[in-house]
Amino acid sequence: MSVVKPLKKLVSCVILDLDGTLINTDGIVTDILKVFLVNYGKQWDGREAHKIVGKTPVEAAAMVVEDYDIPVTKEEFLSQITPMFSERWSNIKALPGANRLINHFKSHGVLMALASNSPKSNIEKKISYHKGWRDSFSAIVGGDEVTAGKPNPEIFLEAAKRLGVHPSSCLVIEDSLPGVTAGKAAEMDVVAVPSLPKQSHLCSSADEVINSLLDLHPEKWGLPAFQDWVEGTLPIETWHIGGPVTRGFGRGSKVLGIPTANLSTDGYSDVLSEHPSGVYFGWAALSTRGIYKMVMSIGWNPYFNNTEKTIEPWLLHDFNEDFYGEELHLVIVGYIRPEANFPSLESLIAKIHEDRRIAEKALELPIYSKHKGDPYMYNL
Fold first, then answer.
1. Which residue among the candidates 175, 312, 355, 374 is catalytic per the annotation?
2. Which of 19, 175, 189, 208 is catalytic?
3. In this structure, what are the phi and psi dihedrals at residue 83, rounded to the nearest 5 degrees?
4. Is this prediction's pTM over 0.85?
5. Has 17 been annotated as catalytic?
């Protein structure tokens, strides 16, 4: 849910963090630490992730070594683990909305800089795998080019200096608390896009907190607005997910009056980490019944405060019977909104039905209806 404070000023340039803001490094960090810590008889469970997000490599190494009581120095830890990360850089995916944002600002001549606590050489290597990114940034500042990393504001002040602009004209986009703190200390406006689930409250000092880059509205900051929304929906690169229909929480039909066809998240941890929580829509195919319009939520459903990220599609058709166990394939083609909390069950239900009306109308448009013929729909 987007939380916006009254704006104090307009901006003319943007300074972006990299890891967790533009590229999906969180899953790689988890994968590598799980493997690495086994060598010392330890198990990474992710509960300490918030301690290292946004930190410099040395600070993060020191925290892991201390918290897990590993018999190595932080320097030895870094020397052992850095090659493991280097091998994965070519596979780090851009987060949803990252390419859209970079291409949009570049096409409108908006000055952009990268400011990351990672060493400059690592930043250059990571972005080299993303077409057009290197030429889009007028300045790149690494954590090894300043005396202190975030939350110290020096890295953002140096970025503004290299752009040749006053700090007050910069908008910072960050995923971590250290980054938000640094941006505000530099007297810049800050948009927080928390990379860790259910951490938005930690970024309350930001001028705006959004769920993902898909939810950024540049015009709020005096920057050129995106022009790609269609009938209240955002076309996205299509993605697929499928499996047998499972029993969910029993809330769909009984509590909401909305029968969802839930999918197990087993085997889809990477997909769930790649796509931000929110309300999406597209096409659904049931192995013995046909193809239907659908709208779905991905996330923790703040009203019910799920402990796990779930996938809850609603097939927009009146079925006379349940179809648990039947194979379901989904083609997701568009985005409607971030997930949000609601003051009452009635307001939640009303919003879900509004999502349905938006999805049903949008799926009649050629930009979305063409995906009804996606081969994945027929590979059941």
1. 312
2. 19
3. -60, -30
4. yes
5. yes
Instruction: Chunk the chain into consecutive blocks of 10 residues (it has 380) and report each block's average pLDDT, rounded to whole numbers.
Output: 53 96 84 83 73 77 83 85 79 93 98 96 93 97 95 98 97 95 97 82 90 96 96 96 80 72 79 89 94 94 84 91 90 96 93 96 98 92
Active-site residue, from 17, 59, 174, 175:
17
**Span 13-21+93-221 CATH architecture:** 3-Layer(aba) Sandwich (3.40)
Q: Which of 94, 84, 86 is nearest to 18 (CA)?
A: 94
Q: What is the 3-state secondary structure (H, E, C) of 106-122?
A: HHCCCEEEEEECCCHHH
**Could you confirm whether 312 is annotated as catalytic?**
yes
298 sits in which H/E element: strand 290-299
Q: At what angle do helices 57-67 and 74-86 cross, to 10 degrees?
A: 110
Choices 2.40.30.30, 3.40.50.1370, 3.40.50.150, 3.20.20.70: CATH for 234-377: 2.40.30.30
